[in-house]
Design a protein that fits this description.
The chain is an alpha+beta fold and 189 residues long. The chain folds into 2 domains: 67 residues, YlxR-like (Hypothetical Cytosolic Protein, Chain: A, 2-Layer Sandwich), CATH 3.30.1230; 90 residues, 60s Ribosomal Protein L30, Chain: A (2-Layer Sandwich). The chain has 7 helices and 9 strands; from the N terminus they run E-E-E-E-E-H-H-H-E-H-E-H-E-H-E-H. Strands 6-9-7-8 form a 4-stranded mixed beta sheet, sandwiched between helices. Strands 4-3-5 form a 3-stranded antiparallel beta sheet. Helix 1 packs across helix 3 and helix 3 runs antiparallel to helix 7. The radius of gyration is 18 Å and the shape is elongated. The two termini are 30 Å apart. Bound molecules: zinc ion. The site of zinc ion (ZN) has 7 residues, from loops. Zinc ion binds next to loops.
Length: 189
């Protein structure tokens, strides 16, 4: 367990943002690949802002000066989460666990094999409404996502479709975890 610098609550390391400062400047390390001293913060803008108060972050990282703002760190976290989401979706596509096209998604929903839905919000349709309608129908988690940031990272098939279903439990768990973190950062508005 690790303790959040912002709110002080403990959580498993994978549920917290890891920050490190290998060259004296804080860096976001959500994949936990950097060595050295680390600091942990909840996936929450509020906790990140708290961590920047009273020199908590510089003390935790043992650096004299933190050359970044809470906004910089938030942007870096969202950027890394988006890249991670793209990786997880590509992995799901390779495993045959992604379905696009509303008709095919609806058939899969009726067959009970869908575990998670992503609906892209753009000018063409009401992603929130679509997510709600599909959720009412099937009771699986549905996330409205911003296509401008995510679509270009997805398998090509997404481009023409406003709903993607994820099947197979391991894929779903990995994708859903990243989406929940993005949501907690206020990114899925
Ligand atoms: Zn916290």
């Amino acid at each position: 367990m690790r303790r959040c610098l912002g709110c002080g609550l403990s959580a498993p390391p994978g549920d917290l943002i890891r920050l490190s400062a290998p060259a004296g400047t804080p860096q976001v390390d959500i994949r936990r690949l950097a060595g050295g001293r680390g600091a942990h913060v909840c996936y929450s803008r509020k906790c990140l802002e708290e961590a920047f108060k009273k020199r908590r972050l510089s003390r935790a990282l043992k650096v004299s000066h933190v050359d970044a703002t809470a906004g910089d760190i938030t942007a870096a976290v969202v950027h890394q989460l988006n890249r991670l989401l793209a990786c997880e979706l590509e992995r799901a596509a390779r495993m045959g666990a992604l379905i696009v096209k509303q008709e095919r998604v609806r058939m899969a929903l009726d067959a009970g094999s869908v575990r998670l839905l992503l609906t892209a919000s753009d000018d063409r349709g009401d992603a929130d409404g679509l997510a709600r309608a599909l959720w009412r129908r099937c009771r699986v988690p549905a996330f409205p996502v911003r296509p401008d940031a995510v679509i270009r990272l997805l398998p090509k098939a997404w481009n023409d479709h406003d709903v993607v279903a994820v099947q197979k439990r391991p894929c779903t768990l990995r994708v859903e975890k990243v989406l929940r973190h993005l949501d907690a950062m206020g990114w899925l508005d």
